[in-house]
Amino acid sequence: MKKILVPTDFSETANNAFVHALGLAKVVDAELILLHTYELPLIDNQFEVQNYEVLIASLEGSNTKKFKEEIAKLKAIATANNYEEIQISQLLVSGELINSINEVLKTEKIDFVVMGTSGATGWKEAFLGTNTGEAIVNLSVPVLSIPKECKYANIETIGFTTRYREKDKIALRQVIEIAKSAGASVKCLYVKNTEDDGTDATIKEWNELFKNEPITFFILPNEEVSQTIADFIIHQEIDVLAMLTYKRSFFASLFTSSLTEKMSYNSEVPILALH
Prior knowledge:
- By secondary structure, this protein is α/β, with parallel strands linked by helices.
- It has ten helices and ten strands.
- It has helices at residues 12-28, 49-80, 97-108, 123-128, 132-137, 166-182, 200-209, 225-235, 248-253, 257-262, and strands at residues 2-7, 30-38, 88-94, 112-116, 143-146, 157-161, 185-192, 215-221, 240-244, 271-274.
- The protein has a ten-stranded mixed beta sheet, sandwiched between helices.
- Strand 1, helix 1 (12-28) and strand 2 (30-38) form a beta-alpha-beta unit.
- The longest helix is centred in the first third of the chain and has 32 residues, at 49-80.
- 33% of the residues are buried.
């Protein structure tokens, strides 16, 4: 059974991502591990050790109590959405979020991370910011990021962007595996521009290699890559967009207001970042 890590700050955005994680868990036959982190305050050196220990114990007790209350609410959400069969465990960790995620990835052998792109504690900045954003995008496992306005729906069509490079094949096979589990199809997009990587021979090779898979290839000539992807998401009714994170700045641009405005009624879709 696979494992999905769901970092949460118990905000509405994080709770929404949790519902998406439940749906993914059902599709790929996985259990969920909920992770909540908190940071203890820095104490002046003159603070008495005994008083410090009392303070830390009090803070830890307070966080533990709140954690239990919030976990109970999340399990109620799972039941309300008919996901009571999904196995859910939880971790409460003292420490910085990204470091804690990386530690759990190692100890729990995580297959996916699912998290919202904004939240009550500024997770949008954490996700797209200079330092922590770089860490998230470069995690060693696929990261499914859920925009705050995106409501869960069954996955019927997964989009995948490619430039027909050899390393893209590995990522595409991961996407096809998920699609098959979900009973979904894959629509693979190549935006052909002056930075061309795909030759006619390579494109023909890919079509032959994946001819027996539930996949359709699209080649759209355009210099506006991100704009073309935004249009593709709408016109092809993409439910999840999968892409490699070789260009973090481009990956982040998909969350900007200009693109979400362009996407109109289906303003934002989950993005599966592959490595």
